[in-house]
Amino acid sequence: MGILRRKVPVPPAVEVRDSRASPPTVSTDLADGLAIVGTGLAHRYEGPSGPVPVLVDVTFTVPRDGYAALVGPSGAGKTTLLSLIGGLERVQTGTLSVGGREVATLEGDELAAYRRTTVGFIFQNFGLLEALTASENVELAAVLAGERSADRRRRTAELLDAVGMMPRAAHRPGALSGGERQRVAIARALVNSPRLILADEPTGNLDADTSDEVMELLEALHRDRGCTLMVVTHDRGLAARAAQQLVLDRGRITSVPQVATGPTAGR
Ligand SMILES: Nc1ncnc2c1ncn2[C@@H]1O[C@H](COP(=O)(O)OP(=O)(O)OP(=O)(O)O)[C@@H](O)[C@H]1O
Ligand SMILES: [Mg+2]
Questions:
Q1: 55 CB within 6 A, ligand 1
Q2: Domain residues of the chain, as ranges?
């Protein structure tokens, strides 16, 4: 699949944060999204008092231009499923393909590249390195992906700007609020222009306005670049913005057919 370069304007809600006259742009690689197909996935953890079955029989499809909300009660296995898709947990039972490739067959450097550049993972607990500043946390993800230093500095600055974090770029995570850490984690997940964005409660620590801005940024990447977007949320309003809702309960997924009201409506 060809990857072209083009400029994508940051959505207006994000521009509001920026006081400069000309709107900022995020230059990105134009990438097609990747379809996710899970079939009969089962997953268990080894707990202190024996195996903990989490996923029992999970079957679902998110199309390559998809925008899916993953919902379900706490402990249902949403983070587990996202971790399987992101290559952070190994598939135990069943099959999982992303862009036609079985995730279970990825090993070594290929698996590392998949995690670092194909997938942009926004962790529920941020996963920022405490010893590094906000800016260094974002840039490190690009260093690990082998980006040239001029490119990664530019991308880091663009993304910190887009999430309204330039004024705090030199702060370490311990000197950031929860919502600010969240936004740095989002910038880091996007720095390598991923084709698949996996966001685990990306707005869980944000106020309503910032939450809207963050969702609009993620949705713009989906809409304008064609990234596949999968968002875990407990917020019904946010879930309703997605083109597709996957409900995870008692180890199984039920899809809720719905009329899209979000940015993918009418596509
Ligand atoms: N490493 C682990 N070892 C043992 N059990 C685990 C491990 N990680 C998760 N679990 C258990 O697996 C279950 C599913 O966890 P998971 O984090 O996927 O849920 P979740 O749907 O993301 O919940 P939440 O909405 O609270 O984030 C939970 O009961 C949890 O206690
Ligand atoms: Mg979770």
A1: no
A2: 29-256
Residues 6+ apart with CB under 8 A from 48: none
How far is residue 119's CA from residue 101's CA, in Å, rounded to a whole number? 13
29-256, CATH topology level = Rossmann fold (3.40.50)
> How many angstroms separate the alpha carbon of residue 165 from the centre of ligand 2?
25
49 close to ligand 1 (CB < 6 Angstrom): no
Convert the pLDDT of each residue in 215-231 to its tens digit. 988 998 899 888 999 99
Give the pLDDT confidence of 24-67 residue by residue, as tens digits: 344 444 458 899 999 999 999 999 999 999 999 999 999 999 99
| Residue spans of alpha helices (H) in the chain | 12-15, 78-85, 108-113, 134-144, 149-162, 178-190, 208-225, 236-239
Q: What is the pTM of this model?
A: 0.85
The answer to whether 130 and 173 have CB atoms below 8 angstroms apart is yes
pLDDT per residue as tens digits for the range 198-255? 999 999 888 888 888 889 889 988 998 889 999 999 999 999 999 999 999 999 998 7
* Spatial distance between the Cα atoms of 137 and 185, rounded to a whole number of angstroms: 8
Q: What confidence score (pLDDT) does residue 202 get?
A: 92
Q: How far is the CA of 76 from the centre of ligand 2 (A)?
A: 8
